[in-house]
Amino acid sequence: MKERIVVPESEMLRQREFMRLVEKLEQRPRSYHIVSMGCQMNERDSESIAGMLEQMGMAHQPVREQADLILYNTCCVRENAENKALGNVIWLKELKKDKPELMICVGGCMTQEKGMAPMMKKRYPFIDLVYGTHNMYKLPEYIYRVLTEKHPVVEVMDIDGEVVEGLPEKRANHFNAFVNIMYGCDNFCTYCIVPYVRGRERSREPEAVIAECVRLQDEGAQEIMLLGQNVNSYRGGGAEFAELLYRIDRLGIPRIRFMTSHPKDLSDELIQAFGELKHLMPQLHLPVQAGSDEILRRMNRHYTREHYLRLVKKLRSVCPDIGLTSDIIVGFPGETLEQFEETLSLVREVRFDAAYTFIFSPRTGTRAAALPDNTPYEVKSERIQRLIDLQQAISLETLEAQVGKRETVLVESVSTRDAGSVGGKTPRGHMVNFPGGPELIGSFVEVEITSAGRNTLRGRRIATEE
Ligand code: SAH
Ligand code: SF4
Ligand code: F3S
């Protein structure tokens, strides 16, 4: 049985009381800056953290150096993510020399790693607060303690399985929103540290998810992204996730997406949903990781290349225009040239819209970290470059095939590269830039695609009846 601990209402009230106490303190930070690293789940957590900090009377400070409180929400999925987090923290030591009242908080996946918190306590005594993934909701209490006891607080909890409802939040914007449907992961892919730092898989109640979607819809959400490490096993798998999607679809929010899906659990019901649901966008992130059965087996992925290709075929028969994206690892321990080339041939066969590619990074405590690995790093670098080149060629061809089409774009931001342009996504998830002003952000605009770049499309607005 999966253990699931709902943090009681009384505990949440206690934390609210700490928020009030912090707000009343004379000597306390007035502004905050959060650095969110890693995946969308961390981004979503950062929105809850921002909500709590604001309830403590702090205002967002966009310039990191000027904030009174700096919080790092860290990631450790690969070594470079961890190095980046630690490098940043060391840099903060210098900042604190000039500004002794600066409060530094570090939390998220990296601090939850075994041995990390004691190491940080010893080596980085200038950090005021270290907390983990399972006790983020206690941030108000910890901040109160740092401010009143005037010494660092290091608290990382080992127990997991918690589901927290009712945290305050400050969303990045009103028109597209992340909604967690589950936390943690039980898959233990042999390379992956996530199950160790995010804990056991547990799902939110469908009613809680629906209530959040309804609230977001009332606040103007045009698109929601449902989040979980493996949404297909929502509440133990089977048709549960598809059922949740059907319920959310009925709410009428224009666009629904979700991530991430594990190929071993992608049910026929879910595939069918892509053909039936009005608001489910034709886009799916379906990480394949490798094209060789032997490597997939050693990764503990529980599917074969054949199975994956069959899923792709089914998805495309239900939804011919579906945009598929993927994650791929190169240089898993013992990967031979032939096995790597099976990944290339799978990529050629599937023709992903885009793929995120990574060189295997050994993570302490995972099974793959202990496997013999004789492939030199230079060889792995050459392999990943071959893969990137191939995927880029396919991505470009896919984007070029969109030229001339009319698309509805949900405008997300002002384009940083093109002055006077804005950018947003098509239903399939392609990014389109086109001339327009910031007043369009958050609205749907009809666009004709005029050209394709390496990763994005360009378009022009077409007149629609008012
Ligand atoms: N839950 C998601 C992925 C979360 S991590 C899923 O199962 O698909 C995001 C991606 O990081 C993974 O898909 C994998 O491709 C990559 N990754 C995870 N651990 C890694 C490691 N040790 N080295 C290299 N890449 C890794
Ligand atoms: Fe990691 Fe695998 Fe879980 Fe994804 S499914 S988070 S890759 S263990
Ligand atoms: Fe990183 Fe944690 Fe996400 S390790 S990828 S931030 S779940």
Structure description:
The protein has 13 helices and 21 strands. It has 466 residues and is α/β, with parallel strands linked by helices. The chain has 4 domains: 9-155, Rossmann fold, CATH 3.40.50; 171-281, Transcription Regulator spoIIAA; 282-401, Transcription Regulator spoIIAA; 406-461, OB fold (Dihydrolipoamide Acetyltransferase, E2P), CATH 2.40.50.140. A 6-stranded parallel β-sheet has the order 3-2-4-5-6-7, sandwiched between helices. The chain has a 5-stranded mixed barrel with strand order 17-18-19-21-20. Strand 2, helix 2 and strand 3 (59-60) form a beta-alpha-beta unit. It is globular. Residues 77-78, 191-192, 194, 229-230, 260, 262, 287, 289, 327, 329, 358, 360-361, 363 line the site of S-adenosyl-L-homocysteine (SAH).
